[in-house]
Amino acid sequence: MGSQVTAASVPDEERTAFWNRTMSRTLVPVEVAPRGGRPFAGHLASHRLGYVRISTLEADAVRISRTPALIARTPQAEPQVGVGVQVSGRAVLEQDGRRAEVPAGGLVLYDTARPYSVDYPEPFRTHLFHLPRRLLGVPERELRQAAGTAVTPDEGCGSVLLPFLSTLAVSAPSYSAPVGDRLAGSVADLLSTLVAQLTAERAADRPHAANDHLVRRVREHIDRHLCDTELSPETIARAHHISVRYLHRLFEGEGTTVGRLVQQRRLDACARELGRRGRTAPTVSAVAQRWGFVNPAHFSRAFRAAYGVSPREWRALRTADAG
Q: Which of the 8 DSSP states describes residue 97?
C-alpha cells in the first residue's frame, strides 16, 4: 500500500503548511522551511515494506527540522531510525553536534528520537527509509555514535548498502507481503552492520581501543550463539579466555549487563521473526525455543516488559502494519 502527494494544485501561500502536514503525517512530525523566494514545489511518494517505510521526496531547496518541541508532543511514539539516500542534489544533516555533508550517491543515518535538521540547499531527490529503532538491536550508545555520519559508495559497507537501498526504493511497490517482510528484515540487518562499522571506526580512534575490540568480539560471539540455551556469562568468558568478573567489568561502561544483553538480543530476534508474515509462520513457542528461551512463561513476561505487548499481540500488530 502506497501514497503519492504533490503540491502542484495547492495555492502558493498554503504550500508550506501543506508540506508540514504531509511530511509530519507520512514520516515523523517535522518543520518544513522552504529556501528561496519562489513557490515551494515538491512530490512525495511513500510505500510500506514490512515494518520499513520507504519514501521518495523530490522538491525545491528546503530545510527540514525535527525540534525538541515536536519530539515532546508525542512522547509515546516509537523511536525510528532514518536513513537518507541522496539521489540528486546535496544534503547537510546535523545531529548531536555532528555535521554530515551528503553528496549525490551518498547516505546518512539519523535517529528520530533526538533533534536533527536536514538542509537541502538546491533542488534534490532523496530516498528516506524509516524503521523502528528497536528492531536494529543495537545499543543506543552505538546509534548515537553512528548518527550524523555520511557514507559514500566507496566506504566500507556503503558499497553494498547504497545499491541495495536505491534499488529497493524503486522496486518496493512490486513485492508481495511475504517477500516485503523478508526484505525489511534484510534492511534492519544491513543497517545494524552499518552502525557496527561506524562505531568500530570511532572506537579505533579512542583510548582503550583494545577493550572496545574485545567488547565487539563478545557481542559478535553472543549474536552467533543466541540459539544456544547454554549461553551464559560463564561460557562467554571461557570462550574469550577471561574471567567472569572481567567480562562484567567490560560491560559496565556499556550501560547494560551481559545477561540483559543476551536476553535483549534474543527478544529482538524473536520480535523480527514474529513480525514477518507467511503461510507457514511458526508458533510463538517455536520462535521462543529457536532463540534460546526455555521457559515460555518467562519469555512472555520478558517480551511484554520489553515491547509493552504480548508476543501474540506483537505478531498481530506487525502483521496488520505490514498490510
A: T
Beta carbons of 317 and 277 less than 8 angstroms apart: no
CA 51/CA 129 separation, integer angstroms: 10
Largest CA distance in the chain: 69
SS3 state of residue 102: strand
Cell of 70: 515536536
Of 153, 135, 133, nearest to 143 by C-alpha is 133
Contact 55, 127 (CB under 8 A): yes
- Please determine, for residue 322, whether its predicted confidence score (pLDDT) is greater than 60: no
Pairing, β 2-6 against β 42-49 = antiparallel
CA–CA distance, 216 with 260 (Å, rounded to integer): 16
Q: E strands, the chain, where?
A: 2-6, 31-34, 42-49, 52-59, 62-66, 80-88, 91-95, 98-102, 107-111, 116-120, 124-132, 150-151
Whole-number CA gyration radius for the chain? 21
Q: Which H or E run contains 301? A: helix 296-307
**Domains of the chain (ranges, CATH numbers):** 2-202 (2.60.120.10), 214-322 (1.10.10.60)
Q: Which residues pair with 32 in a beta bridge?
A: 64
Measured distance CA(116)–CA(320) in Å, rounded: 30
Provide the sign of the torsion angle of the four alpha carbons 196, 198, 204, 209, taken in this order: negative
**Helix 158-171 / helix 177-204 crossing angle, nearest 10 deg:** 150
* Cα-based distances in Å from 183 to 140, 265, 277, 319: 24, 20, 12, 15
- At 93-115, the pLDDT tens digits run 998 878 899 999 999 999 998 89
Cα–Cα separations (whole angstroms), residue 48 to 57, 87, 189, 288: 15, 20, 17, 27
Position 300 scores a pLDDT of 93
260 pLDDT band, cuts 50/70/90, is confident
Spatial distance between the Cα atoms of 202 and 20, rounded to a whole number of angstroms: 35
How confident is the model over 142-169, as pLDDT tens digits? 888 889 889 988 877 888 899 999 999 9
